[in-house]
């Protein structure tokens, strides 16, 4: 579908395509009344496995939460299902690459505090995400440039009845749903996912961001199944102390805790937030929201100014605490025109069960 004067919901004009993938296409759109830029996700009505309506319903169930994009409109236009929602900034994967593929302890802890809160909120609304990864966490833009947002609920599933809180039953022989790199050990083993699996995946995400990579990346195999089996074996045989080597003990505590949870256990989110907040204070860090990409962008601006032979280093700074987010397109680089597209459109090995 080429960019043209197409409107959805009567007041949103579809602009240029900013991403595509196995589940649809994402466009930048404009509210023709207010001029505000938004994101529009389109899915063919003939899609073999339509998921956009389901995803829009999940967003509606989560509406009002901090860091949950607001869906302005969902419906069908011409031959497409369309979802109009907030335009966001770069993903943590984009920022990770921008910062030469490693985050400082301070940045990781600033992020982890918000990440735990986002996952806790999703769980409080009776859903599990089932695809926790850096691509699915996006920073905001403008005044919300320091806020972490969680996206891509196409694989989300209710783990309990919202009214009775009756938990789904334990099952085995399930297909791997999500992204193998960050999948929990139990997910690899074919066990039905629950809250504990989102939490374990989050542990792998923060370790990836701190270490620069995970030991089970880049494994070769003759088939997809063999590759997943190799990833599982490496996860199961890599001791926690090896995985967390060189990092504060809190990360090993976190991983051991999440791996010890039973199927229907409620994670102690407050306890986990506290151990990382205590570490943050003990390290002497400040909650100033100066992330690595803030500093990196400042340095690049300062170098450019110095090279040009004019101005001072301060001329390179962007006002306020959201510094680098203002220049989100530079961070995204040539890989993608918008981080939302990359995170939403990432090809995944998925199970289709949401019952």
UniProtKB/TrEMBL annotation:
InterPro entries: CK1_Ser-Thr_kinase, Kinase-like_dom_sf, Prot_kinase_dom, Protein_kinase_ATP_BS, Ser/Thr_kinase_AS
UniProt-recorded name of the protein: non-specific serine/threonine protein kinase
One example GO MF annotation: protein serine/threonine kinase activity
Xref: PROSITE patterns: PROTEIN_KINASE_ATP, PROTEIN_KINASE_DOM, PROTEIN_KINASE_ST
Enzyme Commission number, as recorded: 2.7.11.1
Catalyses which reaction(s): L-threonyl-[protein] + ATP = O-phospho-L-threonyl-[protein] + ADP + H(+); L-seryl-[protein] + ATP = O-phospho-L-seryl-[protein] + ADP + H(+)
All copies of domain Protein kinase, residue ranges: 12-281
SUPFAM superfamilies: Protein kinase-like (PK-like)
Source organism superkingdom: Eukaryota
Pfam families in the cross-refs: Pkinase
Assigned protein family: Belongs to the protein kinase superfamily. CK1 Ser/Thr protein kinase family. Casein kinase I subfamily.
Gene3D superfamilies tied to this protein: Transferase(Phosphotransferase) domain 1
Keywords: ATP-binding, Kinase, Nucleotide-binding, Serine/threonine-protein kinase, Transferase
Binding site for ATP: 41
SMART domains on file: S_TKc
